[in-house]
Fold this sequence. Notes:
Radius of gyration: 64 Å
Number of strands: 19
Structural class: alpha+beta
Order of helices and strands: HEHEEEEHEEEEHEEEEEEEEEE
Strand order of the largest sheet: 16-15-18-19
Number of helices: 4
Amino acid sequence: GYNNSNQGNDDDGIPYGSNQNKDGKKTKKYALITVGVLLLALLTGFLVSSLGDDVTNIVMKDYEGYTYDKAVEELTKSGWDENKIEREDVKSDEVEEGKIISQNIEPEMKLKESDTVKFKVSKGAVDNSIPDLKGLDLNEAKDQLIDLGVDTANIETKYQFSDDVEKDKVIKTEPGAGSNYKDGDKIIIYVSKGKEEVEETQEPEEELVNIPFVEGSTLKDAVSALEAKGLNVSVSPADAQNDAKVISQSPGGGQDVSEGSTVTLTVEASNTPEPEPTPKIIESTSVKVRLPGDIDDDDILLSYTITNNDTGDVFSGQADTTKDQYSPTYELVINDIPEGRYKIDYTFNNQSGGSDNFVAR
């Protein structure tokens, strides 16, 4: 018969049609099926997990406006782990302090085991007052201002010496701590340069002058001698005359004192004559003057000059009178002149006249 020795072999070197070849193919087929089943199971598990195995039955509420403690209490009562609740305190001008402003999980959503519930809680109205930055490092101070909302462009730094603030530490701010900050305001930070090193300067030795002896000199000579030494002079009595004699000086002559010191001189009393008494004023004095017979005018202008025979003082005046055919004289009344002896010279209508002497008393 038929010789099958020329039949071909498969890839594994096994002749086609042999029993061994058939068993190998079955084994490979079963292995591939097994791997496929395992991959399908893994994929199914992943999809199931993604589609809700992690979801709980706890439904998230809208907790805005609740106190944080009340929200935590309700969540934990519903079975939620308190360790999966977080809180962040933020400033708010609109929500009362301690109340919840917002939450990270929308209301009506079911919570997952992998969730962390996060609440933002109000810590009250925004405080824009500038903090006290004294003693802080410059960078720390700037950070606090930036946290306050200050733009870095509005922060200026100035350095100055300070006896009580350590070098490179903040001395103060301008505006000062507690001042209300408004958006756009500029804030100056003053930083210490430490204590100012002051060079000790040696004061020049004080120049001393020797007081001259002036007792027995006239006041004028004594003052000249003392002022020539650069000394000031005080005189007692203050109204002493230049020719009055100095009877004492303080400090005394021969002492060394600082230039510009004051020397007090005491002088003898002056023999100034007593002033003459003020003459008595006579309120009214009458003087009779003779009218000329050669004046035809009825109205006469009397002009007069009065000279004090003791002092030489001169008074002048005028008086209107009327010619009286029955009286050859006119009584001239002179008011408010000093008591004394006088000569009067007079004219009538600036023409003829006369003179006479009288006493005012």
